[in-house]
Amino acid sequence: MTEKSTNAGSTMHKTKAAADTGNAYEGTASSRVRKNPQERRKEIVDAAVELIAQNGYNGISLRNVAAKLGMTQQGVLHYVKNKAGLLSLIITEVYDVQGTPEDFRKSGLPGSDNPEGMSLIAYFRYLIRYNSQRRTLVKLYCMLEVEAIQENYPLREYMQSRPQSVWDYYSKFQWKIPPSIGGWGKMRPYVRKALESMDGIQLRWLRTPPIDMYDEWLEFEKMIFPSPLWDDYRI
User: Fold this and answer.
1) Which end of the chain has fewer CB atoms surrounding its CB within 10 Å, N or C?
2) d(CA 95, CA 53)
3) Which of 81, 19, 79, 93 has the alpha carbon at shortest distance from 49?
4) What is the pLDDT of residues 9-21, one digit of tens each?
């Protein structure tokens, strides 16, 4: 075997190894760029989000995700254990960790920095605006929420317990509310109705003809947080 054929064999081996670990190397032999695990993981999540939003969780496979990225299925599995693991990653590490009360608290927006507590109404306005900028993720969430009705669905338990989890999370923050409400513990029906209304508004927003999601929310806000009780608590 010549030195040239030996080098060729070595190059083929390295190329195959890179493919089997998720195409970690990209570019030519003279200029290879190694993507770190975080970058590759984000690419996989972004591709999965787009595919699931279009076809539903049950309508895609890891092979579809791999093909979209020019990877092997084994390469995708290097970053996510299985299809259910990918789904969990999308919801728990992407959708549910963006547009949170903590993000609002750090935003410096009106109603976010009151010493007496944040404005819940201002936060919900912030959230609806935020969601209006991430249509694909909202569509994904709506698809998953419907599919989670099915028995043995990977995220069924997570979706069923989500209202409680959201309430528990919101309860960690200080909110400025009318004293006549009787304390934060009495706010649960308000929070529930607000989030359920948002879910419905988002579904309508995804349909044709489109609506202005923020303007639509303001109409529901008047019913959930009526005047004059809430007039001094909107910012």
Assistant:
1) N
2) 13
3) 93
4) 544 444 444 444 4
Q: Which domain holds residue 186?
A: 97-233
d(CA 103, CA 1): 62
pTM of the model: 0.75
**CA 123 – CA 133 distance, rounded (Å):** 16
- Helices 135-147, 188-206: inter-axial angle, 10-degree rounding: 110
Q: Is residue 105 in a domain? A: yes
- Residue 64, sorted as left (phi over 0), alpha (psi -120 to 50) or beta, turns out to be alpha
Q: How many domains does the chain have?
A: 2
Q: Give the Cα separation of 232 and 119 in Å (integer).
A: 10
Q: Which two tokens stand for residue 109?
A: 């927006």
CB 94 within 8 Å of CB 52: no
Phi, psi of 174 (to 5 degrees): -95, 125
pLDDT at position 4 is: 46
- CB within 8 Å of 190: residues ≥ 6 apart: 120, 224, 225
CB 140 within 8 A of CB 210: no
User: Is residue 25, in this structure, part of any structural domain at all?
Assistant: no
Final residue of a domain: which of 75, 93, 111? 93
CATH code of residue 77 = 1.10.10.60
In terms of Cα–Cα distance, which of 19, 28, 150 is closest to 73? 19
Residue bearing the bigger pLDDT, 31 or 72 = 72
Beta bridge partners of 26: 33
